[in-house]
Amino acid sequence: MSAAPEQEVEVERLKHELAQLRTEFQDFTYSVSHDLRAPLRHIRAFTQVIEEDLPDAPPDIRAHLATIHQSAQLLTQQLDGLLMLSRLGQQAVKLQAVQVLPLLQSVLDELQQQQPQRQLQWHMAQDFPELWADADLLRQVFSHVLDNAMKFTRKRELAQINITWQWMMPVDSEDMKLCQITISDNGIGFVPEQASKLFKVFAKLHPVRDFEGLGLGLVASRKLLAHMGGSIGISAQVNGGCQVQISLPSRQ
């Protein structure tokens, strides 16, 4: 049965609106990646020129110039972060059966090589089921979450990070079950009521001077998992560690 004329008109209208939104989004992305960077480059360059022209400037003036330079650098990093987020929605998704254990091990090895001096104790399940996911996107998710676990256990003499899994409710398919992977650590944690804030762009619950980063890892992970039909949650206690739950379908 063919659609009614009014339904066809509505579909065409929605297609037109979607095309307009895509065009506006592309314009925004271009502005972020090109137009907004030029003023920031000028601010940073002329701040350096002033510092060189005034080598004997009073300490307070030099401190002001340093603050301007650091703020411009931070804004540049934030623009890079927004551009990264905008591109996540444009990535092609190739769903297939993914072996979790070697993927996790590869990410762990890479992160540990970046901080060879850290005392880290990993406990990881060895019997993960295959997930129905995109291997490249899932690798990005694991990198974000495990990097956070390493970051927020930095002040522990011995960082402990556990990676376990369990079956959850079945999804709407006879050959699919939902697998939840939990990554827990013994880090500093946070106030439980503030968990939802961590999924907002640039949200940070701890001072930048203590923990670097833009606050985009969980936001990016949620977008990536949504593309694969998955989800992410987080819980914690102050000084009681943090638990991140990643849920994805598993083909059985």
TrEMBL record:
InterPro entries: BphY/WalK/GraS-like, HATPase_C_sf, HATPase_dom, His_kinase_dom, HisK_dim/P_dom, HisK_dim/P_sf, Sig_transdc_His_kin-like_C. Residues 31-252 form the Histidine kinase domain. The keyword Transferase applies. Its EC number is 2.7.13.3. It catalyses: ATP + protein L-histidine = ADP + protein N-phospho-L-histidine. It comes from the Bacteria. CDD domains: HisKA. Keywords: Kinase, Phosphoprotein, Transferase. This is histidine kinase. It comes from Rhodoferax lithotrophicus.
